[in-house]
C-alpha cells in the first residue's frame, strides 16, 4: 500500500478521511460523517495527494470518483484501521471478581460517611478479592494522582477538579442545616435570622471543601455570626453542641447521622438561602475509556442518586 512512501510521521487519521470520502463519494458527505468541516476534509485530501503523489479522487457532477490507486489504498486503509482498532484500542473485558488489588477513592471525612458504607457492601459482593482505599490528597496533587491512576475516582465536593483534564457526573445534592442541643431553649424547627444571629456559633474549618460554600455565602451577604468556637473536626460536635447553647451549620447528611446515633442534638432549618452542595464523581480524561474506570463509574452512579439517597433533606 505504501510503496515509495515514508510512513514515519504518517497521520492515521488521514486514512479515516480517505475511507470516508471513498465510501461517501462526496467531500461534503464525508465531512458530515466525520463530524468535521468540509475545508478540514479538503485539507486532509490535499495532504494525501501530496503523500502519494496521486489525485486519488476526480470531481464529478455528483461528487467525486476514486481513481484506481484510491481503490487499492482504500482496501489497505480499511485493513490497517481494523487491525488498529482490534489489536490496540480494544481492552480485555473487565472482571471485578478477579481483581485482587485496590480501588482507590479520594474522599473527605464526610464523604467517607456518606459514600463508604454502601461502596464497601457493594464491592464486597461484586469484587470480594479487592481492597477499597480512601485517600485525601492535597488539592494541588489531586489531578496528578488521578491522571497517574493512583486515584480511581474522587467522590464528593471537589471544586478544584472542575478544571480541564477531568470529567464529572452529578450524584447527589445536599443542603445545610443547623444543629442545636435537643433541649435547647429555642424549640422552633426553623430558625429566624434574629435567632441565628443571637446565638453563639461553632465553626468548622475541616479539610473538606463543603464548608466553603457556607462561608462564601455569609461573606458575600455580609452576615457576621458571633463565633465562640473554631474547630477542624466534625466528629466532636455532638458532645460540644449537646452540652452547650451553641449552634453549628453543617451539611445535612452529618446532621442526620448525629441525630440517629442518639446524640443529644436536633436539626433546625437555617434562616438563609445557602447554596446547596453538589456532589459529583470525578475522573481523569486519561482513564475515560478504561474498562476498569467505566465499571467503577457505573457502580457509583448506580449506588448514589437523588432517588437512592439514604440521607434525605429533613425539611420540605
UniProtKB/TrEMBL annotation:
This protein's UniProt keywords: DNA-binding, Transcription, Transcription regulation
Highest taxon of source: Bacteria
Transmembrane segments: none
InterPro entries: LysR-type_TF, LysR_HTH_N, LysR_subst-bd, WH-like_DNA-bd_sf, WH_DNA-bd_sf
MF annotations from Gene Ontology: DNA binding; DNA-binding transcription factor activity
Pfam families recorded: HTH_1, LysR_substrate
Keyword Transcription regulation: yes
SUPFAM superfamilies: Periplasmic binding protein-like II (SSF53850), Winged helix' DNA-binding domain (SSF46785)
HTH lysR-type domain location: 10-67
Annotated family: Belongs to the LysR transcriptional regulatory family.
Protein name in UniProt: LysR family transcriptional regulator
Species this chain originates from: Azoarcus taiwanensis
